[in-house]
Amino acid sequence: MDRGATGWKALLLATLCQLAIWCFSPMTPSMDAANARPLDVRQTQPPAEGSVTDNESVSEQRWHLVVHSQKNPNNTIQVTIYIRRDGQILKGFAKYDSWPGTGTLEIRGKIDEAGAFAFVEEGGVNWSGRLLSDHEISGFRDNAAWPFNVTSVDQLPVGTIVFPKAIGPTSDQWGAFFAQFKTAVRNRDTPALKRMMSTSFEYGDSFHAAPEQVFKDLDWGQLERTLSLGTSLSKPSAFGRPTRAAINRSPCKGCTYEVFVSFVQDDDNQWRWSAITFPGD
C-alpha cells in the first residue's frame, strides 16, 4: 500500500514537471508559422517602371468650384480643376468654364496631411484652402479676393489626367535660341516657330492659344521691329523659371498698347516662346 502510494506520487510529480517545462519554456516558431505572417504587398509587388496606377500615394480628383467675388457676391466664376496628388505634391490644370477663351492653365502646389493646400496657376493667380472631406472643399482664389465654400470633389481613376507631352528640344543657351528664333521670324518659318512655342502659349488674353490662330493674325513687321530692340531679363515665371522679354513701347503712332514678346526657360531647361501681345489686344 505504501509502495503504491509512493509510485502514484512519483508519477504525479513527473507529470507536473513536464507541464511546467511546456508552459514556461520559450517556443521556437516553426517555418510554417513564420511564413504565416502578413506580407507587405508593396515590397513583394513593386509598381511597374513609369506607372502611377500602383502607387498608393498617387490620387486624381476633379474639383467643381463656384468662386464668388468678395466685393460683389453676385459676380461668380465657375472653375473645374483637374489635380493629381502625389504625396504632398499637387499638379494639374484649371479650366475656367466661365471664360472659354482662357483654355486650361497648369497649376502646381502642395497639400499637407490635414488637407490644407496652396497652389499657383501658371498665370500667377494663387489658390489656398482645405479639403473638408473626400467630397467637399472650401478656400480662396486670388489671395482671399474670391472665396468658395463646400464645393464638390470627384475621385478619378489614376491616369485620367493627361499632361502635355514634352516638346522637342530647342536650346538651353539663350543666345543660340534667340538667333534661331529671329531667323525663323525673318523667314516666316511657321513650322520652326511652332516647335519653339510653349505648350501654354499666351496670345493676347488667351492662354493655350493654337499656333494656327497666332500665325493667322500675326503682324510680322511689328514682331521683327520688337525683336530688333533686344531682350532683357524679366521676373521669374509663376513656377520660378527664368524669363526674358522684348518690348516695343511705341510700336506705332496712336497705339494704345505695347508689343510684348516673352520667352521662358521651361522645366527641361529649354528656351520657349511663351507669349505675344499686339496693340489693340
Question: Would you mind describing this structure in some detail?
Answer:
This protein is an alpha+beta fold. The protein has 2 domains: 58-156, Beta Barrel (Porin); 174-277, Nuclear Transport Factor 2, Chain: A (Roll), CATH 3.10.450. 24% of the residues lie in helices and 35% in strands. It has 7 helices and 14 strands. The strands form 2 sheets. An 8-stranded antiparallel β-barrel has the order 1-2-3-4-5-6-7-8. The chain has a 6-stranded mixed sheet with strand order 10-9-14-13-12-11. A hairpin with a 4-residue loop joins strand 4 and strand 5 (116-121). Residues 1-6 and 8-54 have low confidence and may be disordered.
Low-confidence residue ranges: 1-6, 8-54
CATH architecture of the largest domain: Roll
- Beta-strand content bin: 35-45%
Mean pLDDT: 79
The gross shape turns out to be globular
What's the CATH topology name of the largest domain?
Nuclear Transport Factor 2, Chain: A
- Please report the number of helical segments: 7
What is the name of the CATH class of the largest domain?
Alpha Beta
**First-residue to last-residue Cα separation:** 122 Å
Global Rg: 33 Å
Structural class: alpha+beta
Helix percentage: 10-25%
Order of strands, main sheet, comes to: 1-2-3-4-5-6-7-8
- Helix and strand element order: HHHEEEEEEEEHHEEHHEEEE
The number of distinct structural domains comes to: 2
Brief description of this entry?
With about 280 residues, the protein is an alpha+beta fold. It has helices spanning about 1-25, 30-35, 40-45, 175-185, 190-195, 210-215, 220-225; strands at about 60-70, 75-85, 90-95, 105-110, 115-120, 125-130, 135-140, 145-155, 195-205, 205, 230-235, 245-250, 260-265, 270-275. Strands 1-2-3-4-5-6-7-8 form an eight-stranded antiparallel β-barrel.
